[in-house]
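for the writeup, i need someone to sanity check this before i put it in the appendix. the sequnce is what the collaborator sent (i think, or maybe the updated version? ugh). structure was predicted straight from it, no edits. if anything looks off just tell me and ill rerun, i have time this weekend
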Amino acid sequence: MQKPWVLSLVLAMLVFPSGMRAKAKAEGMVARARDTVYRDYRCFYSWESLKKTTLGMGLAGVVANTSMDGEIQGWVQESLRDEDTDELSESVKPFGEGAITIPLYAGAALLGKLTEGNQRDSFTGEWGRRSLRAIVVGAPPMLFLQKGIGASRPKEDDSRWRPFNDNNGVSGHSFMGAVPFLSAATMTENRYVKYSLFLGSMLCGFSRINDNCHYFSQAALGWWTAYVAASCAERRENGEGQALICPRPVAGGIGIMAVISF
């Protein structure tokens, strides 16, 4: 019968190198993911992207600080809104809920990697990764502008920009709801599908106008921020889209660690 310490030594020789390799691979993937996000940020804050952002803010500012926003809002509420638009609004609003969509994108990215070789699942994984990257890049400036612009909701006040007076200058729902459609649009060359996805990306923003929760300029600026962010996340770098699943000690037992490089 083998001595206990001999068995322990054999197990250690088998497990430790495997664990060390898994750890090194995870660290490498995290580093690549960090580099990918860094490149996306460089793209977002490049001169080309800043010109697009400035153009969007300039147009939104004109609409917000004149009577145009109020007139559009009045027309939607008095002439366009009905039971059908309310039903549409209710059906698309979940696309703007980050608590629902972010786990969905992460799951899609992981599924795509676990089922490599399946064209449909590969598309799903790429879509999930691009959506996550667009959120990571676009959410911080969107959140800053919400407060920085300082505009209010239609139920509260007008849409004029009053820096840091309120936190509704940009529609977060419009931004989040546009991301999955715009990310998918960057993945197709079929112009009819692309245009359809672009139209779909505007539905969540429309729902906020329909529900009288945001002015047109606020919904438009949320969509525009998502568009610029998704355009940066469109790039595909070498080494992207990797996933690692390995055991990890946790309190009370052993858990599973999943690392997704997007």
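The chain has one domain: 20-260. The beta strands are 243-250, 253-260.
thx in advance!!
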